[in-house]
Write a structure and sequence with these properties.
The protein is of the alpha+beta class. The protein has 18 helices and 17 strands.
Length: about 625
């Protein structure tokens, strides 16, 4: 309502504050963030320009350029840089602490012992052969595998409340499946398949206890699952790379917590099996194949071959260096994850459901068809642990080192684990520095063992990249403004330089005066009439002596209408005087008007018209 257009910026404050408050009170995914942000920015630009009386026909080109540049930079930056939105609910209801929960892997055998043939979970319309995960663990403290906290790794414990939609960039097969919890499944870990894009509970109150981790694609349910709990997940089953693709893939370099109190036999056996592999994927395949080939399977239940529960250092030492290499997926997954970690491969243990056949292999036949609907029923015997290794280009890839469940031992068989000294070891990859111990290999090589550097050189660049991304994300509004301003200044500088150096000497002189008049209009002055009238108007409105401007105007008139020769040296000297006068004019303006004049594109593209005007044609200046 104020007549003074400068007060418009005061009215912008509550609009921006309202948007910021709504964002802080919302979810991490927001609501059409790009569309709303772009629309609000365009409306504000147009409205402020109208209030400042800048919506003239000649300014439409510059306005369109500004809006397009700002939109392209802002939206492009949002698409390229991963977003981590700050919301109040993260502080009001902070992320869960991993230390509040016991190791999920330690309770695996209880499901098999108490509910081996009982249906624990029913899933409708899940793609056949799909795995369902419960928990993901990447920290080994010598006794159990568990979740790491945010000081050790950024992904394992990153559980947050999510809204109706979950950011999901995974590529693969899309699905929508309904999960129903049956008797016997009472835990803090909510069964999930693939990478979720939305999770909707049958009862709205159940959603209050749902926490999801996009990095591990797993969920925590603090109020514990109970019979009858039902929810629908929409998501993507990531594509599984082929064996050939895995064998050619390098291991990714990420920061993970150090495995503590690892038995010596882990490093010795891992190095003997895969120490000479140059590719991380090939090394992981060798580890899984050797454990599956050399080991024997037993749950250690009544009637089974003796096999102690647990997966700590004592149990793993007993598995890999004892008298009998016998166990189930709890021991084999723990052993392979530790062996992979000793070779420098990023590893983690996953606990979940596998649709297994009698041999323990994943089978599509476990999925039953009922018309257009499919149903998969998971029992306690389907609760299994496996290993994931992170490979470049494929992310976390699953490996299953557990022997077939039909490979049951008896007293007449040789159950001892393989001896590292008798294994055929591949020749090691040549080192660039012969004086360097092969146990100190850095980067993505799988050479080395427990002595492999825990801080590879590439880790510095990873941390540097994370810092750059944080600065880019949180400073994106500032970068957008700076980039747009820089582009505008570059456009004006190019136009000015072109007017100064192209065309005949007379045309360059005429363009020089036009540069002065254009700067005056960009400063918000009303400049009309002949050059003499323009000089008087500029001096009067800016409050300084008009003699210099009048002299520059007369020189431009002479070059345009006298018909005499104008030398290139004269044009160059004239432009030098023009540059000094423009500098003086800008210096006499207040700071805000000065920058407004620098960034305005008014009359910038009129230089070309001036240069093309024929000398001798009388205009209004004649």
């Amino acid at each position: 309502v104020a007549e003074d257009g400068r007060l418009t910026m005061v009215a912008v404050v509550p609009v921006v504050a309202n948007l910021a408050i709504c964002a802080l009170l919302g979810t991490s995914s927001g609501f059409y963030r790009m569309a709303i942000g772009t629309i609000m920015a365009v409306v504000l630009v147009v409205w402020v320009s109208a209030r400042w009386k800048l919506l003239e026909l000649g300014r439409w080109l510059s306005s369109v350029v500004i809006v397009l540049l700002a939109s392209a930079v802002a939206i492009g930056g949002c698409l390229v840089v991963g977003q981590n939105r700050t919301i109040l609910r993260d502080h009001y209801d902070p992320p869960l602490s991993p230390y509040d929960y016991t190791s999920p892997l330690s309770g695996m055998r209880s499901y098999i012992k108490n509910h081996k043939d009982d249906v624990l979970l029913t899933v409708d319309d899940l793609p056949a052969g799909s795995t369902v995960r419960l928990a993901v663990m990447d920290r080994f403290d010598g006794n159990v595998w568990n979740l790491s906290d945010s000081t050790m790794a950024s992904d394992s414990s990153n559980y947050h409340r999510v809204g109706d939609s979950i950011a999901n960039n995974a590529a693969g097969k899309r699905f929508t499946a309904k999960f129903t919890v049956d008797d016997g499944l009472s835990d803090y870990w909510l069964p999930m398949a693939g990478a979720a894009s939305s999770v909707k509970f049958a009862t709205s109150s159940d959603a209050d206890s749902f926490y999801y981790n996009t990095d591990t694609m797993s969920a925590i349910y603090p109020s514990r699952t109970s019979p009858g709990l039902s929810y629908t997940e929409t998501g993507v089953i990531p594509r599984t790379p082929t064996d050939k693709e895995i064998a050619k893939a390098n291991a990714s370099s990420i920061s993970q917590p150090k495995a503590e109190d690892v038995p010596d036999c882990v490093d010795k056996l891992a190095t003997a099996i895969a120490g000479g592999q140059s590719k991380g994927g090939e090394a992981a395949q060798s580890l899984a194949d050797k454990l599956r080939e050399s080991g024997w399977f037993s749950h250690g239940l009544n009637g089974d071959y003796p096999s102690r529960a647990g997966h700590g250092n004592y149990r793993i030492d007993q598995l890999l260096a004892g008298s009998a290499m016998v166990g189930d997926s709890e021991q084999y997954a723990s052993a392979m994850a530790l062996m992979a970690r000793s070779l420098g491969l990023p590893s983690r243990v996953v606990l979940g459901f596998l649709p297994k056949n009698d041999e323990g292999e994943i089978s599509d036949s476990r999925t039953e068809k009922h018309g257009k609907t499919t149903t998969t029923k998971f029992t306690g015997n389907d609760v299994t642990a496996w290993v994931e290794i992170k490979l470049d280009g494929y992310g976390w890839v699953a490996f299953y080192p557990t022997p077939k469940e039909t490979k049951v031992p008896d007293e007449n068989q040789n159950l001892t684990p393989p001896n590292p000294q008798t294994l055929m070891r591949q020749p090691p990859v040549p080192l660039t520095d012969p004086l360097r111990d092969d146990n100190q290999a850095k980067g993505k090589t799988s050479l080395g063992g427990s002595m492999a550097d825990e801080t590879p050189t590439s880790l510095f660049w990873q941390r540097f990249g994370r810092i750059v991304r944080k600065v880019a994300i949180y400073g994106s509004p500032l970068w957008t403004v700076l980039i747009v301003c820089g582009l505008l200044l570059a456009i004006k500088a190019i136009a000015l330089a072109r007017a100064r150096r192209h065309g005949s000497a007379s045309q360059r002189v005429a363009a020089g005066w036009q540069a002065v008049a254009a700067l005056a209009r960009q400063s918000g002055l009303d400049v009309q009439g002949t050059r003499n009238e323009q000089a008087q108007a500029i001096a009067e409105q800016m409050g300084f002596d008009a003699n210099t401007l009048l002299e520059l105007g007369r020189e431009a008139d002479y070059a345009a209408f006298s018909g005499g020769d104008v030398t290139q040296e004269h044009a160059e000297r004239y432009w030098h005087d023009i540059a000094e006068e423009r500098k003086f004019m800008l210096g006499s303006l207040p700071t805000f008007r000065r920058w407004r004049a620098k960034l305005s594109l008014a009359d910038v593209f009129h230089f070309r018209k001036i240069r093309l005007r024929k000398i001798g044609v009388k205009g209004r200046d004649s």
